[in-house]
Design goal:
Layout (H helix, E strand, L loop, with lengths): L23 E3 L9 E9 L2 E9 L2 H22 L7 H6 L7 E2 L2 H16 L9 H13 L5 H8 L7 E4 L4 E4 L12 H15 L5 E5 L2 E4 L9 E5 L4 E5 L2 E7 L4 E4 L2 E4 L2 E2 L4 E2 L3 E8 L2 H13 L2 H10 L4 E8 L2 E8 L6
Antiparallel strand pairs: 1-2, 2-3, 3-7, 4-6, 5-6, 7-8, 8-11, 9-10, 11-16, 12-13, 14-15, 16-17, 17-18
Helix pairs in contact: 1-6, 3-7, 4-5, 6-7, 7-8
Length: 338
């Protein structure tokens, strides 16, 4: 899982003490009724969310921006493991064996997370919080986690120890001391949710970008799609009504004893990845793309290929750097071109 995804915690990119919202309008034509391009940026989930959309006027754009950013803020409050008062942390503090009522948003994210955990044989696991917190400390202090502490933390993990009840809308843990971390799915899920809010405002062409996670609705006016560069090879794709997520083992890391340990943790070993891998996934939905990118980063080549090929509409570019050489593999549907 992603270690250090900073849901709810200001990242080094963000120096504002208050929310910042910027609107830019680029006028494509002068006559009334022409769709114009607008862009807005706000800090959420420890990163910058950028929204680009086409609206008939500034008022419609402003309404859409406000509604979309409010939706993202609400999700941050529900899904953050950094915010002490988040819904996620309150649920985790509820103890073992007791079914706890959760909001529709948190339930939906946990349900999608467990589905990806099963599909990936545990390569994606939102219960990895206790291990992730040890690795956060390791990155700050530049030493490996204590082996005994790491074993104890790993014993409190396991997606099969989290149980959901759809009829009651509850979540239950098998043991105490479990901690969920949604860093591998929350940003993609939030980008998709914001896009849906924009659509309900009557705006058909929009893009929501949160660092390496993007979600798109219809193509910009007069174009076949949103032109996006994918992977380290800068392949281009014309995309619409889908999502893209990039997971990179070199994004955040700590070097100890000459070995570089990524912020992405392998649930099977409780260790940060030591291979330099970057995975870009295109998929129908934001949470799906986000969680697939993380799972494929952890899995070996054969298992990663099988996972992508079992997901309808999904494709991936996997880039592995070994020394000075790059090995690039495309998986799944051929949605990308040079």
């Amino acid at each position: 899982m992603h270690e250090g995804m900073n849901l709810g915690q200001p990242s080094s990119l963000i120096h504002w003490r208050q929310r910042c919202l910027v609107w830019l309008a680029i006028v494509g034509a002068a006559h009334a009724g022409t769709l114009q391009r607008y862009e807005a940026v706000e800090p959420h989930m420890g990163t910058l969310f950028r929204i680009e959309l086409y609206a008939p006027d500034a008022d419609r754009a402003r309404e859409a921006f406000q509604a979309a950013f409010a939706r993202i803020a609400d999700l941050d409050q529900a899904l953050s493991d950094y915010k002490p008062d988040s819904e996620l942390n309150r649920v985790c503090a509820g103890g073992a064996g007791l079914p706890l009522k959760v909001s529709n948003d948190l339930y939906a994210v946990l349900q999608e997370s467990l589905e990806m955990s099963r599909k990936s044989d545990g390569a994606f696991d939102v219960t990895l919080g206790p291990v992730i917190r040890l690795w956060r400390q390791a990155r700050r202090e530049h030493h490996l986690p204590d082996p005994a502490q790491l074993r104890a933390a790993a014993a409190r993990c396991g997606y099969y120890k989290l149980h959901l009840d759809a009829a009651a809308g509850t979540a239950k843990f098998d043991q105490g001391g479990m901690q969920l971390d949604l860093g591998g799915i929350a940003k993609g899920w939030a980008a998709e949710a914001a896009l849906m809010v924009i659509g309900r405002q009557g705006i058909r062409s929009a893009l929501v970008a949160a660092s390496g996670d993007l979600a798109f609705s219809d193509a910009p006016p007069g174009k076949a799609g949103w032109t996006i560069g994918l992977g380290s090879a800068s392949r281009l794709a014309m995309l619409s009504n889908c999502a893209v997520s990039t997971s990179g083992a070199s994004e955040q890391f700590v070097e100890i004893g000459g070995v570089r340990y990524s912020h992405i943790i392998d649930p099977a070993t409780s260790l940060g990845l030591t291979r330099d891998v970057t995975v870009t996934v295109v998929a129908p939905h934001g949470g799906q793309a986000d969680s697939l990118a993380l799972a494929v980063s952890v899995l070996d080549a054969a298992r990663g290929r099988r996972l992508i090929e079992r997901e309808p509409g999904a494709a991936a570019i996997v880039t592995i750097r070994e020394g000075g050489a790059l090995r690039i593999t495309q998986l799944g549907a051929r949605v990308m071109k040079k």
